[in-house]
Specification:
By secondary structure, the chain is α+β, with helices and mostly antiparallel strands. It contains six helices and nine strands, in the order αααββββββααββαβ. Strand 2 and strand 3 form a beta hairpin. Helix 1 runs antiparallel to helix 2 and helix 4 crosses helix 6.
Length: 295
């Protein structure tokens, strides 16, 4: 009878001691996770609130990078919390950590090849964050290993392991950071809308240039567009000569990520101005191209 009671007594003592500590550790990890996520949200809200009071150009760069840093720091903090909690639970279960060294070494060697890509993704994530290559809201073009066509979209999430962007058609594209071989940031510091207007060669070049300059001045005088433009649109001159037509290039420096909106607006204004002058613009009027820049 005594032998049967002893195990129950030991189990009762273990439940009141180590089991209680394990439960508290798990609850503590959950609470710290919630706290870390709440702090991340609070920091991002503070960044956005402070950004609304600053210049548009400065806000777009500093705020985007700080949001990425907040995301990465939160991710790393959660990893540390889970690791420490797991080690403490293993100790409370009575498993000697020294005895796990040899099996852990064998396991790490066995998984080494499988974890190479994971480690590569994490390392690339550190470089992306530290070098401020892109941040939340940036419009980027990513070329990845093994994929012939690069993808373009707006950055929605950046962690140490993956980058998630949303394309113009609404598709969500998730790319491991270690697979990114080239990034083109189309909204870094400032951007440029490039418009090539194909015009019949019979039209006087000075007349075409005057129309485009007038369109640029009117666009810069528009209060709505003025907020998106960094300076008045300029006419660069003839960019290309073909049989029967020549292309006149017009460029506009814009706030980051606004080159597409400005390009569409200028295209409509150019088409309307040419129609008023009785000039037929070729159907291949090119305003889709835009570039990013650095100040």
């Amino acid at each position: 009878m005594t032998g049967a009671i002893a195990p129950l007594t030991d189990l009762n003592r273990w439940a009141r001691g180590d089991l209680l500590v394990i439960v508290l550790l798990v609850l503590g990890a959950i609470l710290l996770t919630r706290l870390a996520q709440w702090l991340r949200g609070w920091i991002i809200r503070r960044i956005e609130a402070h950004a609304s009071e600053t210049d548009e150009l400065v806000r777009s760069e500093s705020a985007k990078h700080r949001q990425v840093v907040a995301q990465v720091v939160t991710w790393a903090t959660l990893a540390v919390i889970y690791l420490v909690t797991a080690v403490l639970i293993v100790q409370r279960l009575g498993v000697p950590l020294v005895g796990l060294v040899a099996p852990a070494a064998l396991l790490s060697a066995a998984l080494g090849f499988g974890l190479q890509r994971f480690v590569q993704d994490i390392a690339a994530g550190f470089f992306i964050t530290g070098e401020k290559q892109y941040g939340f809201g940036d419009v980027i073009r990513i070329a990845t290993a093994g994929v012939s066509q690069p993808v373009t979209g707006t950055v929605e999430d950046v962690t140490l392991r993956v980058t998630r962007i949303r394309s113009v058609s609404g598709e969500v594209i998730t790319t491991p950071n270690g697979q990114i071989i080239q990034v083109t940031n189309l909204s870094r510091d400032w951007a440029r809308a490039v418009i090539d207007v194909p015009v019949p060669s019979a039209i006087d070049l000075s007349h075409v240039t005057g129309i485009l300059k007038r369109v640029g001045e009117e666009a810069y005088g528009d209060d709505r567009l003025r907020k998106l433009l960094l300076d008045p649109p300029s006419v660069m001159g003839v960019e290309k000569i073909e049989v029967g037509t020549f292309s006149v290039r017009m460029v506009a420096r814009t706030l980051p990520g606004k080159q597409f909106d400005v390009g569409r607006e200028l295209r409509a204004r150019v088409a309307l101005a040419f129609r008023r002058e009785g000039i037929n613009v070729a159907a291949e009027l090119d305003t889709g191209r835009a570039t990013g820049g650095a100040s």
